[in-house]
Design goal:
- The structure is a single chain.
- The chain is an alpha/beta fold and 1001 residues long.
- Strand 15 and strand 16 form a beta hairpin.
- It starts with 5 loop residues before the first helix and ends with a helix.
């Protein structure tokens, strides 16, 4: 309850007592009661003042809602506030329209003010009623009271004393509206409450008609009174207030195939539907005894209660039954299918029951051998949650760690064992939809080695809806919006742009709330399960209605679960595989962050981002997920993102060029250091053109060296391929096409010349750039490079500081500061002073040693610690766990172990040739086996040996060798698959791949 200062409390109370239209707001925000009353009393006497007060009412209400939701408004700009609240999922169409009417009113035109003032006061009242329903859940209809002139005079007398101290009241209000921290579950309740409060209460006489309309929409044949003789004329018929023996009555009975199978009860708007469902359960049992018509099962299993807006459903066939809200009635064909399934498997009559009864343990599933342990952990956690009845399940997996593979394996198990009828997979990009469809075709089932796509039909969603035989349907968020919310799909040229990027260029249309309506081509009961791949979190905010539309559990996979995602899933994060853990496991490289310091002379230098970590960034990862993503604060038009303008571009490019020997010291001894593959982020196409010109001038290079790639480029797809595969194309300047499935494995540097507003987008870009690449592939496009050991982030616009990444600059490419930091952390362990952040940072610093760990050094660590280096790292990364404390104590007690770790750190940089002094154990094993293979299987020509040696090198990094790699670098430079077949002959080439794979395994 909001409170004014005690000095003014009595004045607000006096005002509330005489304000019939706004006095009820006093317990929730006194200033709202004041501004509403102030606008009302001025409508006739001072319409311009009424307009101003109405606008202030809207602004105060928007700030109050943001405060309640824990949303930080960027500025005092009302347009920005409304966009923030809409993207957070708090604004719905009628509410937003009322806010916009208040904000868009012209307070400088006296003639217009006289016309619009009464309308704006009415809008204030509508918003006041919405806010009251949101706060209380009260659904009683509220009507605007037309106040008499005498009562208006009394009201004006109560407004005047507060008007005189308004500046002080606003200061007190601003203090009350300070930052708040809100749990995801609390935010979710507020979002749902805002949605429910947005609809005007239905008159009781209209509720039954609205329920019948929704039944008709779902394909039910609603029979008139006394028409029960026609109950067989359709698969699904509805009897309205049927006469039952014993004087009993039901509002609606559902007949499927002539048998009574369900019941519908109508309640007044705002009624407690959970209590109503208990009553419906008792009636479902009584109806079967009193029904003159055939009954499918007693008591009736399918039960619905509705107040005309909300619809609660209960299936008595389900184990550990739980009622759930749904967006629309199930179709008769769906209930008929559920009946058949229940009769066919009485022990497991529902989809959820089949999950519990028939999903085999992962250890017993032969197809599980295609997955890594991290993927299996995610699958196990998802299935446990679904069996427990969770309707929203969230999995976090870092980019490049097998997220899509886990999704496909889960779909396979749900279709094969739980007998799901159809699964929907939602992705962010059209190209991702195509790629996932292809991945389904690559997953081999134990069924005679056939692919999953051979066993189950996989198709992309079309405007006509899924075909009857489809088992897996893949769609983009844009296609769902077009079908359910009536929005237009992007043109083909922009279908390849991720929502992560379009969210960086926010317009009013981008933040308009999505209102979903029933779609006959895609009914709510079309799917048993919805899997959401790593989509932009707007689908969980303004677009959440797209997912709430379907009556199916939603499983979300996300690399960067920002708070709207976390909130939508009720903080039900069942499995987590963080970027830091992926570094420890050698799946990705870590990164170094450098900022640009501009000197008084106008030149610039690159300096490591300091190691200080904000208190906000030190919170545990789950706590960070609880907070709304910071990019919500950037949706307003208040300012353009920071950029490096033309006057400083040459200085930044020069600083980058001059720092390359320091950034990549292992390559500095080369006669000519090849510029690593670099992506530069520009503001727009004009800025990108300017950037390209300056980079070419600074490096003294031609057109091919640095090129622009944007959606407005000529053949952007071909430019991307050239950038990935040709050594001559070194620097790509981009605006909008790098956050999707673009292959960034060969990229070793990113240069931010424009501010990245979204924290999730920033994390996504860094994770993509940190993807590993086989040394042979890297050398093919970056001559002189031995291996990708880090990803260098050059931040010229302070983006990295804004996003407060939890572990910043955990490496230093020069090795000097990095070694000093590692030694300092080890010494801190001796002193017993490692805090949670330092413990996790030590884990990530040691993780960098895993990819270059020799067999001898690995054995030394295991001998001293009793654990592998990978295990030590994993325990340290769980900084708050008991294992981290035990590992820290182990390091403190063993000086020999600390010395070995420092020696391992020194090892990779102790060579002039640019290669580690100690090859990794895997690489050494492959080298020995390759030598044995070439001795026994040869002789080979020099051209053939080139193919064999490069295949072996890729195998050492990414065992087993995938034949699809033959069309990637370095093989693409010699003709790819065709070149390989030509070097050996078709039959011999296929046999050689098999024999070589066995020899190297």
């Amino acid at each position: 309850m909001a409170r004014a200062s005690s000095e003014f409390e009595s004045r607000f109370t006096d005002l509330a007592l005489v304000s019939a239209n706004f006095g009820f707001l006093l317990p929730y925000e006194p200033l709202l009661a004041f501004y509403g009353a102030s606008a009302e009393v001025r409508v006739s006497s001072a319409p311009g003042g009424a307009v101003v007060a109405a606008r202030q009412f809207g602004e105060v209400l928007a700030v109050t809602i943001g405060h309640l939701a824990g949303v930080r408004s960027p500025t005092a700009n009302q347009s920005s506030r409304l966009r923030v609240l809409t993207r957070a999922g708090l604004m719905h169409a009628p509410v937003l329209a009322a806010f916009e009417d208040l904000h868009g009113s012209a307070d400088g035109d006296p003639d217009r003010a006289e016309v619009v003032a009464p309308l704006l006061v009415q809008r204030c009242f509508e918003l006041a009623a919405w806010f009251f329903r949101l706060q209380t859940g009260d659904r009683e209809p509220m009507s605007f009271v037309h106040t008499s002139p005498s009562d208006l005079r009394v009201l004006a007398e109560r407004v005047a004393p507060l008007d005189a101290v308004l500046p002080r009241l606003r200061r007190e209000f601003d203090l009350r509206m300070g930052p708040t921290l809100l749990l995801a579950s609390e935010r979710e309740r507020l979002i749902v409450g805002a949605r429910d409060a947005a609809g005007e209460p239905l008159p009781e006489a209209s509720i039954a008609a609205e329920v019948q309309r929704r039944l008709t929409k779902a394909g039910w044949d609603v029979l008139g009174p006394g028409a029960d003789a026609d109950r067989d004329r359709s698969l699904g018929c509805v009897l309205v207030e049927p006469r039952l023996s014993g004087g009993r009555r039901a509002d609606l009975l559902l007949l499927v195939g002539g048998q009574v199978a369900g019941i519908v009860e109508c309640k007044r708007d705002g009624a407690d539907l959970a209590t109503a469902m208990d009553q419906a359960g008792r009636l479902a049992a009584a109806v079967t005894e009193a029904s003159p018509w055939p009954v499918w099962r007693s008591p009736l299993p399918f039960r619905y209660v509705s107040d005309g807006r909300r619809l609660l459903f209960y299936d008595a066939n389900d184990p550990e039954q739980q009622a759930r809200f749904i967006s629309g009635f199930h179709r008769p064909a769906t209930l008929a299918r559920w009946q058949r399934e229940a009769e066919a498997d009485r022990a497991a009559p529902t989809y959820r029951a089949r999950q519990a009864a028939h999903l085999p343990a992962l250890e017993e599933d032969s197809a599980a051998s295609q997955l890594h342990p991290r993927q299996l952990r995610a699958v196990r956690a998802v299935e446990q949650a679904l069996v427990a009845g969770d309707r929203r399940v969230l999995v976090q997996m870092a980019t490049g760690t097998g997220r899509v593979g886990a999704e496909i394996f889960e779909a396979y198990r749900q279709l094969t064992y739980a007998r799901a009828t159809r699964i929907l997979v939602v992705v962010d990009l059209k190209i991702m939809a195509h790629q996932i469809q292809a991945r389904f075709g690559q997953f081999n089932t134990p069924d005679a080695g056939r692919s999953l796509a051979d066993v189950y039909q996989v198709e992309e969603l079309t405007p006509a809806g899924p075909t009857a035989s489809a088992s897996i349907v893949v769609t983009t968020v844009q296609r769902l919006q077009a079908m359910l919310a009536g929005t237009s799909e992007p043109e083909d040229g922009f279908a390849g742009v991720s929502a992560y990027e379009t969210a960086e260029q926010v317009s009013q249309s981008d933040t308009a709330p999505l209102e979903v309506t029933y779609c006959e081509a895609l009914p709510p009961d079309s799917f048993d399960l919805v899997v959401v791949d790593d989509c932009h979190h707007s689908v969980y905010g303004r677009g959440r209605a797209l997912l709430e539309y379907f009556d199916a559990p939603v499983v979300g996979f996300s690399a960067t679960p920002a708070a709207p995602v976390f909130g939508f899933f009720n903080a039900n994060l069942v499995s987590e595989y963080a970027f830091e853990q992926a570094v420890a496991d050698g799946l990705v490289v870590d990164y170094s962050v450098y900022r640009t310091r501009f000197e008084p002379s106008g030149s610039a230098v690159l300096v490591p981002l300091d190691g200080r970590i904000d208190d906000e960034a030190k919170r545990p990862r789950r706590t960070q997920y609880e907070q709304l993503d910071e990019d919500l604060a950037y949706v307003g038009p208040d300012r353009d993102p920071r950029i490096i303008g033309s006057e400083r571009l040459a200085a930044v490019a020069t600083a980058f060029r001059d720092a390359l020997p320091t950034l990549f010291p292992e390559r500095a001894a080369q006669a000519e250091l090849v510029v690593p593959k670099t992506v530069v982020f520009a503001r727009d196409d004009a800025h990108a053109d300017d950037v390209v010109r300056h980079i070419r001038e600074v490096f003294g290079a031609g057109d091919t060296f640095c090129q622009k790639i944007t959606m407005r480029s000529d053949r952007p797809d071909q430019l991307l391929r050239d950038f990935r595969t040709t050594p001559q194309f070194r620097i790509a300047v981009v605006v909008d096409i790098m956050s999707g499935p673009t292959d960034m494995r060969a990229v070793e540097c990113v240069l931010f010349l424009r501010e990245v507003r979204s924290a999730a987008y920033y994390e996504r870009l860094l994770a993509q750039g940190a993807q590993r690449i086989a040394p042979a592939e890297l050398r093919a496009v970056t001559p002189g490079a031995f291996a990708k050991t880090q990803f260098v982030v050059i931040d010229a616009v302070e983006t990295s500081r804004h996003h407060r990444r939890r572990l910043v600059n955990v490496t230093d490419a020069s090795g000097r500061a990095g070694r000093w930091a590692l030694e300092r952390l080890l010494n801190r362990a001796v002193d017993g002073g490692l805090n949670a952040d330092e413990t996790a940072e030590l884990g990530v610093r040691l993780a960098r040693l895993v990819p270059v760990l020799s067999e001898e050094d690995g054995a030394a660590v295991r001998k001293l610690a009793g654990l592998s280096l990978e295990q030590l790292v994993a325990q340290l990364l769980d900084a708050a766990g008991e294992e981290a404390r035990v590992t820290s104590a182990l390091l403190a007690e063993m000086p020999a172990l600390r010395a070995v770790l420092l020696a391992i750190y020194d090892g990779p940089a102790a060579t002039d040739a640019g290669e580690p002094t100690r090859p990794s154990a895997a690489a050494e094993n492959v080298r020995r086996r390759l030598a044995a293979f070439t001795r026994h299987a040869g002789p080979f020509t020099a051209a053939q040996l080139w193919w064999i040696e490069n295949i072996a090198e890729v195998t050492a990094a990414e065992a087993p060798f995938d034949p699809k790699n033959l069309d990637s670098v370095p093989f693409s430079g010699r003709g790819g698959t065709d070149g390989f077949l030509g070097a050996f002959g078709a039959d011999a080439a296929i046999a050689l791949l098999s024999d070589l794979g066995e020899a190297l395994a």
